[in-house]
Amino acid sequence: MTALSCHIRKATPADQPRIHAIRMGVSENVLSDPSRVTDQEIAWYREQAVFLVADDGGEVVAFSCANHQTGLVWALFVDPAHEGRGHGRALLDAALERLKAVGHAQAHLSTGAGTRAERFYRRHGWRDMGRDLDGQIVFVRAL
């Protein structure tokens, strides 16, 4: 299936096991310490911020999170078995629309250098602003 056939919707608590499996199943941007992402932080994003999933035939295949207060795109991950089908782009577009709707003029994020994620963001109009203290590339994009 393509992103056109998937449904972008707000994440629910019932989605959490699948979201966790997707996050732990990626080969790039692997969490060095998974305990740093707490249940409380995930619950806050799900309840207060922009936490979206791509649901393809009843299965969550990707998710994104963005902080509506700061404009930070905190996460964008696609199940490796569903990559290349447009789910990431659809989720990112939906998250950016929501950030714009609450008044942000730009969004920002960081990702590893030399990754597919870096190439993805560059292809989709994100501007490289340099490195953060952890060596991640900081990107911004006007909304």
Secondary-structure element series: EHHEEEHEHEE
Helix content: 25-40%
Distance between the termini: 28 Å
CATH superfamily membership: Gcn5-related N-acetyltransferase (GNAT)
**Mean pLDDT metric:** 90
CATH topology: Aminopeptidase
Radius of gyration: 14 Å
How much of the sequence lies in strands comes to: 25-35%
Number of domains: 1
Query: How many helical elements?
Result: 4
Strand order of the largest sheet: 1-2-3-4
CATH architecture: 3-Layer(aba) Sandwich
Structural class estimated from helices and strands: alpha+beta
Number of strands: 7
What top-tier CATH class fits best? Alpha Beta
> Spans with pLDDT under 50 lasting ≥5 residues?
none
Largest sheet: 4 strands, antiparallel
What's the overall geometry? globular
